[in-house]
Design goal:
The chain is an alpha/beta fold. The protein has ten helices and ten strands. An eight-stranded parallel sheet has the order 3-4-5-6-7-8-9-10. A two-stranded antiparallel ribbon has the order 1-2. Helix 1 packs parallel to helix 2 and helix 3 packs across helix 4. The chain binds NADP nicotinamide-adenine-dinucleotide phosphate (NAP). The site of NADP nicotinamide-adenine-dinucleotide phosphate (NAP) has 24 residues, from helix 9.
Length: 278
């Protein structure tokens, strides 16, 4: 049996989340079914999927093939805007459980606020019922700004345990991270490598890679760890899967972290959660 690699972070509800996961978009069922057991073998225990990725069946099959006890795994999924109601959240959750072929998910996220539709608070009330009924362990949001989160907190009296944000050294999300820190919300980073080669080619990144004897991707991923974030990089390549999670045996200095954060481009690259969503 492989050894889990990432430390566990405490969620406000008493459960714990591995501080590193596998992103699964845009892998299809067949690709993700192959990648997941490789990732488990490499020490991954957190898997990030979504209704919208249309690969939950492949994730479920991959997890079963990996042969690790369910309680050692942390499965996250998300649902689309058509389910933004109390009943809708339940239907979405039950459909995801069926596709994943699991009895519960560890974390269910509202994928986008879809503020124009203005039903995300109802969707969150639905999540709370699912948590009460044991179908989900933790409840969260994705792409929620502090304004959306504050409204959820004010209207339901409950704070989401996790918020997943587009986050990397080009998009440092100062406000989103500060709000999360104030409220005990764990932040997951999507596009933690900023997808393409550009970030990995930045002189700051390549110089730190050389100095620490690491790859550029590892430098960027360690930056997330130093900030207490939970990155979910996607890779379907066995070697890069292993490379990415091998970031728990070195550290960056506060100066290194500050240099990387200096690459921030504000909102230039952000998919705007006020207008984008599905
Ligand atoms: N909540 C949301 O709205 C939302 C939105 C988008 C994504 N996500 C989640 O976040 C995950 C990650 O985000 P992302 O896929 O946008 O971006 P990412 O993880 O930053 O980058 C993925 C890209 O980088 C490549 N890559 C991975 N490791 C590498 C390495 N060590 N060296 C060189 N290239 C490497 C991958 O190719 P290979 O596969 O060929 O290695 C892939 O093309 C997604 O899979 C999904 O689970 C969530």
């Amino acid at each position: 049996m492989s050894t889990p690699i990432a430390p566990m972070l405490a969620l406000t509800n008493g459960f714990h989340i591995p501080q590193f996961g596998l992103g699964t978009w845009p892998m299809d069922d067949a690709t993700v079914e192959r990648a997941v057991p490789t990732a488990v073998e490499a020490g991954y225990r957190l898997f990030d999927t979504a209704e919208n990725y249309e690969n939950e069946r492949g994730v479920g099959r991959g997890l079963r093939a990996a042969g690790v006890p369910r309680e050692e795994l942390f499965v996250t999924t998300k649902f689309n805007k058509k389910w933004h109601s109390v009943d809708g959240a339940r239907q979405a959750c039950e459909a995801s459980l069926e596709r994943l072929d699991v009895d519960y998910v560890d974390l269910l996220l509202i994928h986008w606020p879809n503020a124009d539709q203005d039903r995300y608070v109802e969707a969150f009330r639905g999540l709370l019922e699912l948590r009460r009924d044991g179908l989900v362990r933790a409840v969260g949001t994705s792409n929620f700004t502090p304004t959306h989160l504050q409204r959820v907190i004010d209207e339901t009296g409950t704070t989401p345990e996790v918020n997943q944000l587009q986050l990397n050294p080009y998009v440092v999300q100062d406000k989103g991270r500060a709000f999360a820190a104030q409220h005990g919300i764990v932040v997951q980073s999507w596009s933690p490598l900023s997808r393409g080669p550009e970030l990995r080619s930045e002189p700051v990144v390549t110089e730190l890679a050389q100095r620490h004897g690491r790859t550029p991707a590892q430098i960027v991923l360690r930056w997330h760890i130093e900030l207490g974030l939970v990155p979910v990089p996607k890779s379907e390549d066995p070697q890069r899967l292993r490379e990415n999670i091998a970031v728990f045996d070195f550290t960056l200095t506060p100066e290194d972290v500050a240099q990387l954060s200096g690459l921030d481009r504000g909102n230039e690259l952000v998919l705007d959660p006020e207008t984008f969503g599905h």
